[in-house]
């Protein structure tokens, strides 16, 4: 068996066997298969797809490439959630302390940004001192003591995905349903949680552009999870417009904390509603309650301040400095003004995501360094009425802000 045989089969749309998939995953993980060969097979998969069986075999081989975390020493039903990625998606920062405040253990491993979408680990690492690399024992101890831990994909957890994840980002093979499903579910299963809520994004700022694609991805991931003995539920949400008003690592932490503290207005309704839905689903799975009961419980810990207190406890427990959240300065700021009067009909999430990468808030290559303070504040949101000259967005960066980035933000606003 060799990689040339695998290329030949896949480029003609033939299904790879379980043995062939295991050969590829093991070889790429141990370094015997080079990047250029792995890239070729990934592109063939991106173009020709995979059967449900192939996707399951790929997921299973990736799980078996490393360790599987044993969370049995954590009392209670362990819940996790995952988003397929979106622009301004800081939902994890909000729903995990909500669920922990409801006394449900949240054991979550997260990733860094991929493409135009920000990663939860990047956002948390924007907080001075916050530790995302935890040993298995530290992770378990934090969940037992604080009911919450969020860590990066460290140690020997799904090493195949670490390598493939980085390679997909720079080879145009991100938007493949089998590859996305295998990547997400291998990490989720290996992370050891009993239940998983999948937030599948759909729209211009997501990898899945249509509802049909999002539904297919949701069904694929749910089937994999159930085959491997997990309780899984998927929710499809809109990503045609950015979520919330802040895009960028530190900016999104600031917004998440403000929401938990109750410092929000009607312009945050999209973010609030999304977080309540996801948190409610997590609580339903973990506590075995109905939607009405779960939603009331979620809104209760938001209203009484216990979710905000849990966020502070979580940040400090992993070494973060809460005071640093409010210390944000950049060398350059640009205000974007409306060129026409009218109502904001939509804000193209793809263009906003690309602009945030241009500012330094996202990665161009896997080696790119992030500017944690860089990002975009949307002063006007969908449905707002603006006059000519009104500020509709602010751009922040420590490097000079180029005209192309400014033009992208201007073009993202459709004002009718």
TrEMBL record:
Keywords: Glycosyltransferase, Transferase
Cofactor(s) needed by this chain: K(+)
Record-listed E.C. numbers: 2.4.2.2
InterPro entries xref list: Glycosyl_Trfase_fam3, Glycosyl_Trfase_fam3_N_dom, Glycosyl_Trfase_fam3_N_dom_sf, Nuc_phospho_transferase, PYNP-like_C_sf, PYNP_C, Pyrmidine_PPas_bac/euk, Thymidine/pyrmidine_PPase
Pfam family, one: PYNP_C
Domain Pyrimidine nucleoside phosphorylase C-terminal, first and last residues per copy: 343-416
UniProt xrefs under SMART domains: PYNP_C
Domain of life: Bacteria
Gene3D superfamilies, per database record: Nucleoside phosphorylase/phosphoribosyltransferase catalytic domain, Pyrimidine nucleoside phosphorylase-like, C-terminal domain, Transferase, Pyrimidine Nucleoside Phosphorylase, Chain C
Group of enzyme by EC: transferase
Reactions that this protein is recorded to catalyse: 2'-deoxyuridine + phosphate = 2-deoxy-alpha-D-ribose 1-phosphate + uracil; thymidine + phosphate = 2-deoxy-alpha-D-ribose 1-phosphate + thymine; uridine + phosphate = alpha-D-ribose 1-phosphate + uracil
Quaternary structure and partners: Homodimer.
Family: Belongs to the thymidine/pyrimidine-nucleoside phosphorylase family.
Function: Catalyzes phosphorolysis of the pyrimidine nucleosides uridine, thymidine and 2'-deoxyuridine with the formation of the corresponding pyrimidine base and ribose-1-phosphate.
Name of protein: Pyrimidine-nucleoside phosphorylase
Organism taxonomic ancestry: Bacteria, Bacillati, Bacillota, Bacilli, Bacillales
